[in-house]
Amino acid sequence: MKKSIIILISILSFSCSDEKNTQDVPVENMYFPAIGSDAWDTKTISSLNWHADAAQPLLDYLDTKHTKSFIILINGRIAMEHYFNGHSASTPWYWASAGKTLTSTMTGIAEQQGFLSVNDKVSEYLGVGWTSETPAKENLITNRHLLNMTSGLDDALGDDVSAANLQYKADAGMRWAYHNVYVKLQDVVASATGQSWSAYFNAQLRDKIGMTGTWLSSGEDLSVYWSNTRSMARFGLLMLNHGKWEQTQILNENYFNAATTTSQDINMAYGYLWWLNGKTSYHLPQSQLTFQGSIIPSAPGDMFMALGKNDQKIYIVPSKKMVVIRMGDAADNVNLALSDFDEVLWEKISALTGN
Fold first, then answer.
1. pLDDT for 109-127, tens place per residue?
2. Under a CB-based contact definition with an 8 Å cutoff, are residues 353 and 24 in contact?
3. Mean pLDDT across 141-164
4. N or C: where does the chain have the smaller number of CB atoms within 10 Å of the terminal CB?
5. Which pLDDT does position 1 carry in this prediction?
């Protein structure tokens, strides 16, 4: 009997070791940095068995591509953190459209608190006439359509989201187009909760996970989030853990799952304001073309992403318990979200991590 137990333990140990090697995920508890503290646990490259000789080429590439900050978290711990070109850990920078995922998250929080439903018509909160469409067409647009970019509003008219500039292009749900009209969800949340967008965001998300930062107006009724890089990393860590911070479920898991899986049948690589890697096809901003394959072939297939103008990035890789943050100026040309930079960057990250 004793011999059988020893054999069983050996088999289980081998099996766990093999699974670890397959998934390449460190076996340790998830770490969350304390609220109100700058302290943050770290991991060394050697402890992760990464290829140390690939670290400097990655940093050199980031430096030449106008990066200001770069962080990699593994199980919540900092494995790499670097600042470039005069940027520092305390310097704020804009999230651009990577902040769309903050709006998505707050919509989910407002729904779980009973203030709204993603299936409600936007006009229930903003009133009739928030677009220049006919009431019948306007009333087709739900909060979900704003979340998944299928409002049907004309995306060729620029960033202005005043009613006069929100014009009919197709019925809601029939056309995917990257459009700044998503920002109207901030007004929906404010109307539904009876609080200002910033106050509700700060109380229900920012302060609960120890972020810093603020929403600043960028003109044309747009609000852009600014924070330091570690605050962006805290948000990435929350989403790596399916909306849970330590023992507190800040965003319910059902909404998290809906937000980070394909949300409509036109752009397979889009959830609720999150980009999704590893899908069979994808659309790009300002294009109605369907491209076959994964958005970033060199990156893990299970990765989901917050992508902002000029290469603001939050990459989240559940299979590796990894969060990667990049802030800075445009790596090459000015872009809305995706660029060739993503592909090359992930080739260099993979060279470092070994897969």
1. 999 999 999 999 999 999 9
2. yes
3. 96
4. N
5. 41
The residue assigned the tokens 């004309």 is 154
Q: Are strands 322-328 and 312-317 parallel, antiparallel or unpaired?
A: antiparallel
Most confidently modeled of 15-19, 124-128, 214-218? 124-128
Spatial neighbors of 3 by CB under 8 A, at least 6 apart, are none
Tell how far CA 129 is from the center of its chain. 31
Task: Judge contact between 272 and 147, C-beta under 8 A.
Answer: yes
> pTM of this prediction?
0.91
Q: Tell me the two tokens of residue 273.
A: 């304001």
Q: Which of 9-13, 248-252, 276-280, 316-320 has the lowest mean pLDDT?
A: 9-13
Please, what sign has the CA dihedral across residues 336, 337, 338, 339?
positive
β-bridge partners, 216:
224
Phi, psi dihedrals of residue 201, rounded to the nearest 5°: -60, -45
Query: For the chain, where are the alpha helices, taking DSSP H only?
Result: 2-23, 55-64, 100-112, 123-126, 135-138, 143-147, 184-193, 197-201, 229-240, 253-259, 340-353
Provide the β-strand partners of residue 328: 67
Sheet holding 222-227, edge to edge: 93-94, 222-227, 214-219
Fill in the DSSP letter of residue 171.
-
